[in-house]
Request: fold
Amino acid sequence: MAQGGDWQQDVLRELADGAQDGTPLPSRPAASEAIPGGTAEAIPGGAAPDEAPESIPAAPPVPRQSHDPRVAAPAPESVPTVDPRLAIALGRPQHGDSVARRTGRSLRRLAASAGQEVAEQTRLAQEVQLPVTTGRVVAVTSIRGGVGKSTVSALLGRTFNHYRHDPVLTLEADTALGTLPVRMGAESVRWSCGDLARILTPAMQLTDITGYLVPVSDGGWLLPAGQGRVGAPLDVRTYRTVTLALRRYFAVTVVDCETLPGDVARTAMDTAHARVVVAPMTAEGVNGTRQVLDWLAQLPHSALASTVVALSANSPDTTLDPKAAAAHLREPGVPVVLLPYDRHLAQGGTIHTAMLGKDTRTAAVRLAAEAMHRAVRVR
Ligand SMILES: Nc1ncnc2c1ncn2[C@@H]1O[C@H](COP(=O)(O)OP(=O)(O)OP(=O)(O)O)[C@@H](O)[C@H]1O
Ligand SMILES: [Mg+2]
Reply:
């Protein structure tokens, strides 16, 4: 288990106390309840001043205030993430690897020495579990839409949560119709980033915060950008307010950003501790991603040094040579992790970790390890 600093101890103790008391984590407030919170004015509090990235203005000192449930607007409605008629039509999840592939792999495993593989897996797990003293933010984006940002974010969120014993948040910072809640298995969403920006106060405890988040089935928490309707996109101010405040409570926050060069995506890339750029396995996708890397090289805060590329094969019919594509992307000095085509991922819907192909699982752990290494060790 990762050892954290004092803040983490406090957070874990708080959760443990709640459990010992028999006090359950608060469920999301019922629709009839009012929003806890002080004023309608967002409070960008949270991160220790010395830890805040330089480009984020320091939070003004704010008086500690109680989050009185009687104040403010009524709670938003709970909205299903997928129309139930479509959820039925999705069919059963299929495994990422075919039966023949799984059988062949088991036989090979019996014949070969697995020592080297185990050593590598242990090394990667240790990187994913690196201790943190303040919350780390890993931003995921791409130069084009539909290339796998939400899929990669969901894989990272689940991987961090599986390996780490401190709180992990997966946050959607995409416009209203993102797919992250579905990929994370949320059946419905209610509170969004915009709502939390109005509600958060420095006086809140982790147990107050989690009442507004979606609990992920195999652990961790999710905060959607909206309620799955066409509406006003998330703005930079809301993004900064929410990420700065939530860093106090979560050891790792994975952010599913909008496509570059959107303002929120640029802000997220500029202020994150580590960045994952998703590149599709096409010539134009790799070419565009290389331009993003060249842009990152010009940013302050060692932006390129804390960047990882996920080269994602979203189609079984890609013809681009993965080695040539990876070599092109590696030239500026970033690691490239190949995310193979996976039938389970291609199917859409909730990602079930147990249904992922073996190479996909390995790639997810490698990606999480590379990102965490950079989020913690690169300054
Ligand atoms: N490794 C993979 N193997 C197979 N299919 C994949 C893989 N990665 C992503 N996909 C598929 O690619 C499609 C787009 O993925 P996703 O929604 O994650 O992209 P996105 O970049 O978040 O899109 P948007 O810009 O709309 O938010 C999905 O249908 C997903 O199932
Ligand atoms: Mg998406």
